[in-house]
Amino acid sequence: MRLNRYLIALLPAILSFTGCNKEKTDTPYVVMVSLDAFRWDYDSIYGTPVLDDIAAKGVMAGRLIPSFPTKTFPNHYTIATGLYPDHHGLVNNSFYAPDLDLVYRIGDRAMVSDGDFYGGEPIWVTAHKQGVKSASFYWVGSEAPIEGIHPDYWKTYDDEVPFGDRVDTVLKWLSLPAERRPHFITLYFEEPDATSHTYGPVSPETGAVVRSLDSLVGTLRTGIASLPHAKDINLIVLSDHGMGAVDESRYNYIMDTLPQAMVRRIYGGNPVWAVEPVEGMTDSVLYYLNLQHGMKAYRKEDLPPYLHYGTHPRIPAVVLIADPGWTAGLRPEPGRYSKGDHGYDWKWRDMHAIFYAEGPAFRRGFAADTLFNIDVYNIVTDIMGLNPAPNDGNRDRISPLFR
Ligand code: AMP
Ligand code: ZN
Ligand code: ZN
Q: Of 273 and 1, which is predicted with more confidence?
């Protein structure tokens, strides 16, 4: 009995001595921050001294190219997995999944936390499988068991949690004793997305939020710098997409020309709608949708190849995309007009996002012209020395970033 207790107390030491304790504590750290809808050119429009300083001491990209559709959920999960939305299955913020016979919506907790929707392998699952701890103060997918796995520490999304509290928690995680400390951490802020939807990307309100986020990143940076292991921590600050100006004068209502009887299902939201025509009606649906100027409907197999979109079974026969600056709604909804939106073809420059990074892995003062968000998964797994899962990224594009 006594001997047993003695052995139990010694177990951690025995396990680590024999190499059975799989937890790895010598892995470099990566803290990845997302500022939702932070557009590529806000540094020059509004002034972002903290981000500029990260660029001077680390790396930045002139633009981070998002994946199509340039919406929050598809892109955060692309960043986490290195897969196009067409390959990971979060094909929009809302969609019908015939494989599950369920409708996914970002406001539906049950769906957001259902692991069956999420294909591919997010970074925290890769880390877990290789004995590395991770934590998430929000990230798309972190609330669902994916292959049965969550980050070791994670939170249910609640937009009322003050931004400063989120930063404090991340710094607390980084201060945990080594054996409990996460090595990969995500941190998400739903701004400047919310403000710029309401007031537009170029507005005093968006400017104020952009500047306060810049100084919040400064708080995080100062906190990281004061940690004893600061020199092992890499910080990445990025966004999921940009934001384009829209207005009421360029507005289409899909159901103005499309006969309801031809439609079996229609899901999505401006600017991308997925239309499942009634059997045999595909040509007619395309005809009626394309009567309107300011939007274009495609057979899914005819979508431009650079969108990498249209093969997933969750994408139905017809995809409608509003033109840059235009809004496509189903029917008039007075009072629901916004001044900014995203989701458009990534070739519209206003959809482009940001990428800044600093730390021991990154070169100092290096500016890349363009990066693609399918490459972020490889950037993180390379830094952390993790074996990556198959993904759509290309290593040649990221090697110039590293020391
Ligand atoms: P959108 O601008 O429509 O692409 O989506 C942005 C919205 O996604 C933000 O306003 C957030 O409130 C919401 N969001 C972000 N992460 C989550 C999450 N994990 N669960 C639910 N909603 C989220
Ligand atoms: Zn977003
Ligand atoms: Zn948004």
A: 273
Question: Does residue 263 share a domain with residue 227?
Answer: no
Cα(58)–Cα(68) distance, integer angstroms: 28
- Pocket probe mutation, ligand 1, options 34, 35, 36, max atoms within 8 Å of Cβ: 36
**Containing structural domain, residue 305:** 251-337
Helix, coil or strand: residue 325: coil
Q: What is the pTM of this model?
A: 0.94
Report the alpha-carbon distance of residue 374 to residue 329 in Å, rounded: 29
Q: Reduce the DSSP state of residue 37 to 3 states and report it.
A: coil
Q: Is the peptide bond before 69 cis (omega within 30 degrees of 0)?
A: yes
CATH number at residue 146: 3.40.720.10
Residue 147 per-residue DSSP state: T
**Residue 243 CA to ligand 3 centre (angstroms):** 8
Residues present in the chain in total:
403
The H-or-E segment that residue 206 falls in is helix 204-225
* Cβ contact 61:355 at 8 Å: yes
362 domain residue, yes or no: no
Query: Residue 335: which pLDDT band, with cuts at 50, 70 and 90?
Result: confident
Look up tokens 């001997």; give the residue. Answer: 3
Residue having the nearest C-alpha atom to atom 10 of ligand 1: 190
Extract the runs of DSSP E, i.e. beta strands, from 73-209: 94-97, 102-105, 134-137, 153-154, 184-189
Q: Tell me the per-residue pLDDT of 57-85, one tens digit each, with 9 for 90 and over.
A: 999 999 999 999 999 999 999 999 999 99
Residue 277 pairs in a beta bridge with 263
